[in-house]
Design brief:
Layout (H helix, E strand, L loop, with lengths): L3 H7 L1 H11 L7 E6 L5 E6 L2 E2 L4 E6 L2 H8 L2 E6 L8 E10 L3 H11 L7 E6 L3 E6 L12 E6 L6 H6 L19
Antiparallel strand pairs: 1-2, 1-5, 3-4, 4-7, 5-6, 6-7, 6-8, 8-9
Helix pairs in contact: 1-2
Length: about 180
């Protein structure tokens, strides 16, 4: 489980481009996918806050927050730009942030209202992906350029140990045998 800062130190250019896509409209904006209690996906728009120290999100008391508190797995996808189909994606696990100084600093940066019942989560990064499509020069031609970063500490035995015996699970622990809903 790499922090955003560890990911950015390892792949600064990729982290910078992902950050630009997540913040292309000013404050962060993306879609957060969580895992419901029945194992299905839940998707909500969110405003992530990216600092040099981490990738954070304030989440109000909601099904989305209960998903994160119960399971901890997430996927965050950028909002699509108006002029292209470029996309950014990060996935991993969340950690609840309780340090008052960190909460206050991120709340100020993210302009989080203090009177709201929210909780601050830090998003670790197990995988980061950036897809670029050069449609302006060659519309409908060629393949997209995809760059992927996998946390070197989360590969191999760590990922395999999380899967129950005889279960086919994807990289993020989801059962790949289940049909899409």
């Amino acid at each position: 489980m790499a922090s955003w800062s560890e990911f950015a130190a390892d792949e600064p250019r990729l982290a910078g481009e992902i950050r630009l896509l997540l913040q292309q409209y000013g404050p962060g904006f993306g879609y957060l996918a969580t895992v419901r209690a029945d194992g299905g996906p839940r998707v909500h728009p969110v405003s992530p806050v990216i600092t040099d120290d981490g990738l954070y999100c304030f989440v109000i008391d909601s099904p989305k927050r209960r998903d994160l508190e119960r399971d901890g797995r997430y996927a965050l996808h950028s909002f699509p730009p108006e002029e292209s189909d470029d996309e950014a994606y990060v996935a991993g696990r969340v950690r609840t942030v309780t340090d008052p100084a960190t909460v206050a600093r991120v709340a100020e940066i993210g302009r989080a209202a203090p009177q709201v019942d929210w909780r601050l989560f830090e998003f670790t990064v197990d995988v980061a992906m950036l897809t670029r499509r050069d449609q302006a020069i060659h519309p409908g031609e060629g393949r997209p350029q995809v760059r992927v970063w996998l946390d070197p500490q989360a590969t191999g035995s760590t990922r395999q140990a999380a899967a129950p015996p005889k279960a086919r699970r994807g990289r993020h622990g989801f059962d790949t045998r289940r049909p899409a809903a």
